[in-house]
Amino acid sequence: MSHKTINILQEKTPTVNGSAFTCPLYANRKKLNDMNMKLNFFDRPSGPLFDCDVLLVTSKFAKENQWWKEDLKPEMFAFLKKAKEGVDEIIWVDLSDSAGTTHFEVLPYVDRYLKGSVLKDRREYQRFLYGSRYYTDYYNTEFGVVDEDPGEPHLNHCPDDSGLRKIYVGWNSALFNYSYHGNIFRKLNAHIGFLPVIYFKDWKSPYGNRAGLLSCRITADYKRNSVAFQRRRVLELLNGRLQAGRVDIARYFKELENSKTGISPFGWGEICYRDFEIIISGAALIKPDCGHMETWPDLYLKNETYVPFRWDFSDFDDLIGSLPGREKELIEIARKAQEVYAYHLFSDEGRNEFCRRFISLISFENINTNFNTPLYPSQEGSKDKVPSWEGKGVGN
Fold this sequence. Notes:
CATH topology of the largest domain: Rossmann fold
CATH architecture of the largest domain: 3-Layer(aba) Sandwich
Strand order of the largest sheet: 2-1-3-4-5-7
CATH class of the largest domain: Alpha Beta
Helix content: 25-40%
Shape: globular
Number of domains: 2
Largest sheet: 6 strands, parallel
């Protein structure tokens, strides 16, 4: 394998999405180096930034530098043009929350466009999506939900076919620390500086007595009606059945660890940190159907790693009413979700798979180029027992 130098331009003040993107790179940096992949990280466009074979520019860097303002867009495009003069390949890393929220105006200036989750039917990007999300467009069309704030115009740029061919699934925000102790570790790191990347194994087994049926600690205080609609409707349908709203982190995890299920509607994006917290806590994840998107690692195997409900809520009451009689099934779904998640975080095979994926992406191999994949494909998975991941943690 030929040697490659890969430079990554990221935001100076870390965001959760930005940190979730770089976390597996730091965790596997030595392994990648052994594979002749040298990684360098930058938070400003200076120094030896262009001394590389491949340059990755994250959208969080662009946002931090306000490059999406109309008067600053020329600065962004000029930077990308200049970068292309000195670098063989440029990859844009879209770290926005939703599969439908995009930055496609950069497509003419980059060689590849990575995103943690994308629409399975790429051609859906060639039409205007109300609210810049597939589900907000659905709620506008089917329920007449409208926003006072239409959103930023750059999020609704429709690419041509050549642009579509540049879009690839990178990796989503799952490969980060979302456990109780991981949360404390992240806050500590924010105050004292860089600490080693550690994936904590303080997971709760799905087995054992759980007194609670359902945890739903969500809020719906979004400024966009089309984003808030799904959560507002869930809270309305659950009214009187449980306590909702925010609580402190210790109580939140304690409640999840004592609940058979946890519900995680879409927020600014389909994938939410709550998804991972629910899985880590050993509860079965209940979530709106995610069959419209392609993502990696894929923790969203319908009725295997999560329990889906329809976007129109037509099956929601029946689903909630059926939970008391499905304990064994829910335990199996929670177990399977932990198995899939633990494979990617803790196993050598999972880390090797990440490294191979990263190398394929920056080497411009065609690992995923679906344009018209059916929206709701069937999923199959192993039923093997999940190993115990309880312990302190593993790191680089």
